[in-house]
Known about the structure:
Structural class: mainly alpha
Distance between the termini: 81 Å
Strand content: under 5%
Number of strands: 0
Number of helices: 2
Shape: elongated
Helix content: 55-70%
Amino acid sequence: MKTLDALSDFFDDRRKAKSRKIREKNDKLRQAGKYSIKKGWGPMVNTGSGGLNKDPTSRVFFVAQQQKNISENNELSERRSGQVKRK
């Protein structure tokens, strides 16, 4: 048990040292007027298409329909603003 306790203490100390080092770095950045950036993925977007393992044909149709709707909305807004003449 003595060895396991020593190993556990080693990993705890290493984790605390890393945390302290990051905290010191972030404090220096804040003093310089900069802020640390969260790394990793951005927020997840609900596309309504379900998981990736679902039927791929429905997913493709859903994305194509979204693109069609966006292009139609853009076209309508351009026509209303007078930027593009009717075809």
